[in-house]
Batch of 2 targets.
Target 1
Amino acid sequence: MILPAIRPRDAGSWDVVSLGEVMLRLDPGEERIHTTRSFRAWEGGGEYNVARALRRCFGLRTTIVTALVDNPVGRLVEDLILQGGVNLSHVRWAADDGVGRTARNGLNFTERGFGLRGAVGVSDRGHTAVSQLRPGDIDWDALFGDEGARWFHTGGIFAALSDTTADVAAEAMAAAHRHGTIVSYDLNYRSSLWKGFGGPARAREVNRALAPLVDVMLGNEEDFTTALGFEVAGLDPNLSAVDPASFGRMLSAVTAEYPNLALVATTLRVARTASRNDWGALCFVDGGLHRAAFREGLEILDRVGGGDSFASGLIYGLLAGFSPQRALEYGAAHGALAMTTPGDTSSATLAEVEAVVAGASARVVR
């Protein structure tokens, strides 16, 4: 299947609508979570990170469908989202009961890792406001029909939040298709989210049920294997090397089982250390495999959000009408740049992305 026609920019209010949780990220910087005495606050969340980058780096009109508790923590997250430029008109505000018995805002403690010490994420996000969304809570036909959107993005993190969120995602995808909106889905498998919720088997069940509603499927090797059930033949279990041909065959198998998928893409990462990775990407579209430049020994400051930044760069390229190869290069370049700065979200500029795509060096600019 080829990518369906993308609605023109003047056909609606939004270039991209995202559905997902926005958490408060607490970052100990160079310290450890269990030893630090101070944290830096950011906002972050897989689906949100894509919308923010598409707004701040790529200049598109984006909005986030989410829910927050109306208390000072929720308003801090709101203020951070406002700095990111993402529209807040589709945020649902839940009443604060004082201590979070009925609903709360999610927290994500994240240490970056260095050298042999890998990055660590500790989520504190049980019974959050957004996890309690149910089918019927959002008027998707008003959003995709009356307001209009060119692209809808959500993913496996949102789908894993509760026993209702996957149904909300399915409802949103169906409405998006009714109104000619492209649907992308990042598998984004997180073992911590599925640990008490059926584990990998449940993750596979949920994601395989949602896959027929997707146009553009994204993920990494763990996502496609654990969350969707497709093995990469001959993959080194320590992932000390990657074979693009094996990944390409896996992507081809995904599209064979789900012919509705117009494009399937994966990032390629070899973590030599937490602070030095090899990085690249592949996509399979219209029967052909495309490979972005593979960057060996990429120096990493903060790896969290690299996949989301890849997704946003790829989506930007497709919305801009680029060829799949060029869109893939934008995704890989933006993902690489995002990992050179702290926080979940990208602080790269479009000019920087284009320079990296063109092969620019890291010489000082002054």
Target 2
Amino acid sequence: MSKVDVLCVGIAVADVMAKPIDAIPEWDRLGTFGHIEHHIGGCAVNTGVDLVRLGASVAVSACIGRDGAGLFVKNTVAEAGVDTSGLVETGAAATSYTFVMIGSDGRRRYLHHIGANAHFADTDVPTDLLARARIVHIGGALLMPAMDGEPTGRVLARARELGAVTSMDTAYSPSVDSRALFAPCAPHLDCFLPSIEEARAITGEEDPQAALRRLGRYGIPTVGIKLGADGCVLLQDGEVRHYPAFRVPVVDGSGAGDAFVAGFLYGMLRDWDPGRTATFANAVAAHCIQAIGCSAGVPSADTVMRFLDVQGR
């Protein structure tokens, strides 16, 4: 079997995106909105599709339900060019589902049904896919009850033993002990790129620089924190370095963090230095937020590079 650049392991979701929703109606009252779209989502799926759009080869390992939403996710991921041989189905729950309410300013509210993602376990990740991957990326940690913590650590350890570089991105979940679930994963990670909300939950530090330095104590070679509209910070040679975001019109912020991670992994595949990688990742996220949906706005790597040339970065 041929190698794949990245195996994305984690959550898969059917998304309904509705816009604009700037106010929620009172109970027993009707509200309206002007636009609706159906998309696939979930950190592992988003990052995988984005990487394919950039030009990488990708496989995904995730759990879906035996239902129409699951079929939609599987077919759409396959049509995007992602290897779906690692998708497993369960009859114990419906496919994970998110209703995304997008405001006029691009901000979002979410209603989420965890569904099949709750049944995804480390034993569901095929060893042959782990062996074929140059990078194994966990997308959506902290939203997979059967996978989070020690089981994720086992997946990462297996991946490293088979020669892969390992990466992880968490999802913010205030109902879990983020620090306790992260700890078993850290020894097996080569790259960790949480959002500032997730970094705060893990470290207990409010300030991004302080949170980044505390994450650095885990000994992970590459650590960064996504700061949304402020770009990102990376820990390089013991120093915190800030890479600003690009100012572009915001249509929908959904999937921006996953697009950033896809851009970062793309740079890692090409052995770029951290600064170039972070700047490229910010540019991928900037394209993502200019279209409705988690991946619709992500272009080819060549298009991103032309954008960077115009921006002078």
